[in-house]
Amino acid sequence: MRAGRDRAVVREWCSHMLLCACRMRHLAVLAAVVALAAAGPRERRQAAAGPEDYAPCKGGTGTCVPYYLCQDDTIVTDGAGIIDIRIGGPEQQECGNFLHICCNDPTRPVDPVDPTIPYKSVCGNRKTSGIDVRIQGFKGNETQFGEFPWMTAILKKEIVAEEEINLYLCGGSLIHPSIVLTAAHCISKHNPHALRVRLGEWDTQNEYEPYKHQDRDVQQVVIHPGFNPNNLHNDFALLYLQTPAELSKNVDVICLDSTPSVLANIQHCIVTGWGKDRFGKKGVFQNVLKKINLPFVEHAKCQHALRTTRLGAFFNLDQSFVCAGGEEGKDSCSGDGGSPMVCLDNNKQQYVQTGIVAWGIGCGTNNVPGVYADVTFGYDWIVAEADQLLLNQNVNEYWTYYDQIPAQ
């Protein structure tokens, strides 16, 4: 009986090695994998079926789709199990943590700047030329020291050989001296008390910088109640710091905005991070904070582009996402998860955070945008939770706009 039923199911194959979704069972999927593994070189090199190859199932209800788009007899429409989540892995950690690497001692330390000089905090104030001195000789995608003062590195504290080390998890952004905004997917599985935030970091292999970085332990983590770890819908999280950050030239906050119209006039945005320079094992984490300019992609156009990938023609891009990129070799990548995407508000000449690095299909593929959690979509939740964390203080005073950048 089993063998006969198995053969009957296998005959449900559609053309081009597609599965009849809603009719196939798990055994048929296994049979597909076995068949592909046993196929000769010609079959293995066959191009993947695109949406134009989808057709109704022969002799039954449903649609012919690639086997990986059929889960529990239903076509996958939200990317669960298919998307490439922007989170770093354990590889490439030469010293147990990418923030610590083997390096020769500097021969001429930089004299630190007096930290007691009064500082006026301004959200979204990018220091394009760096702080106090412009660093020469770097690649075009490397930032200046202190150029993006809201950028944070989220670390995990671990004890190795009776010594505490910091393992890099992902990026984040400072939105208040006591609150960091990041992606839920990068911290949801970790004990909040094992997390640490590094502020004002730039070159991870150089301890001699004009302004030192600040480390703050995390007291509490708040994750959006609608977060789905499979498809990353509502990928928002807040980290409440045990001790507030000391705002300075290299540590400051990013602007937030609740108005969707802010996105209307945006054409290009910037993503920063220490993540990998490419997808897969050949990618390496970065020492100096990197920046990448990306075109903003409208929601419907992004969904159309993603449907041409392995996500398939039935993929629906959730409203909690925005998109940017789609240019060859320019994208956020593994390890950049949680990092901010910021865009210049031309009316205010300040940067506003529009996205949080979430996921993509590979990295830097032409005509395939990267996907980001939409900060405008999550703004009301962010404000409500920040109010509770800070006992209803006027939290948004830190991330609201000025009419003009005040002189420093």
Automatic annotation (TrEMBL):
Q: Which UniProt keywords apply?
A: Disulfide bond, Secreted, Signal
Q: Could you read off the lineage of the organism from its UniProt record?
A: Eukaryota, Metazoa, Ecdysozoa, Arthropoda, Crustacea
Name of the protein this chain belongs to: Phenoloxidase-activating factor 2
Localization, per the record, is: Secreted
Q: Which GO terms describe its biological process?
A: proteolysis
Where does the source fall among the domains of life?
A: Eukaryota
Instruction: Tell me, in one coarse class, where this protein mainly resides.
Output: secreted
- InterPro entries cross-referenced by the UniProt entry: Peptidase_S1_PA, Peptidase_S1_PA_chymotrypsin, Peptidase_S1A, PPAF-2-like_Clip, Trypsin_dom, TRYPSIN_HIS
Q: Which residues form the signal peptide?
A: 1-39
The species is: Chionoecetes opilio
Annotated Peptidase S1 domain ranges read: 135-387
| GO cellular component terms, semicolon-separated | extracellular region
